[in-house]
Amino acid sequence: MIKMAGNKRFCDGTVIALLLIAVWTVSGCVDSYAPKVISPLATSTEIIGTSVQNRPIECFRFGNGPHVILFIASIHGNESFGTPLAWELINYIQKDRRLLNGRTILVIPVANPDGCAAGTRENINEVDLNRNFPAANRINITEYGTHPLSEPEAVALKEVIQAYHPARVVSIHAPLSCIDYDGPGQTIAENMARVCDLPVTKLGAHPGSLGAYVGESLGIPVLTLELRATDRELSADELWAKYGRSLVAAIVYPEILY
């Protein structure tokens, strides 16, 4: 049953599971990346917006604690192997509810569903969503959007950040093989790097990027998990074996995993 909460739509686990299966089937995303979670035990599942081609953008919320951590995958559609890692995170949260003590965890498995369907970095308007935010350093050019938040997918992400005021944001990318950070995120990045084989590397905030907007302009730590190009060949289980503890380390910080 779908119910309305203000102007936001929430779905129970059964309905959202059917929606997700339909979306992934129609979109053409790689079958092996389809969600393994059939009935997510999320506190709520919100459709935070729709893409240019009217695909839903889902955000799974777990817990109700004051400390909010936001995970985002596949803001670049050709880096979609971050999505199965996000689904494995959802699986893990459901198995270890201790992670929710004092916390709210938000997971957006597919931030750019049209780009994922087409296998393109950009959305269907050929705009790089990770250059479309109202950061101080953004540039108004066609490939970044002629104005900030010109794309509905970027608007949806901005509204989630405004609504929940996360303590940190973790964005999964590829293929630069490192953990990058923007804003005051160095110690969190180091905590994540302790439990995986990626080094901490400060790449710098690109114009209009999520890191520039959230990390530099808003002062919220943004951690970018840059997977390796070869990770594209890995199964969801293999991806989790390599990087799962790093994602958990981002949740439990300042606790240190060994």
Give the beta-strand count: 9
State the distance separating the first and last CA atoms.
Answer: 42 Å
* CATH architecture label name: 3-Layer(aba) Sandwich
Radius of gyration, CA atoms, in whole angstroms: 17 Å
CATH class: Alpha Beta
The whole-number mean of residue pLDDT values reads: 87
Helix- and strand-based class? alpha/beta
The profile of the biggest β sheet is:
9 strands, mixed
Spatial strand arrangement across the major sheet = 1-2-3-4-6-5-7-9-8
Kindly give the count of domains.
Answer: 1
Low-confidence stretches: 1-28
Annotation field: number of helices: 7
Order of helices and strands: EEHEEEHEHHEEHHEH
Question: If you consult CATH, what is the topology?
Answer: Aminopeptidase
Q: Tell me the overall shape.
A: globular
CATH homologous superfamily caption:
Zn peptidases
Please outline what is shown here.
This protein has helices spanning 13-27, 82-95, 113-118, 152-164, 186-193, 210-217, 236-252; strands spanning 2-5, 8-11, 44-50, 56-62, 67-73, 103-108, 168-173, 176-182, 222-228. By secondary structure, the protein is an alpha/beta fold.
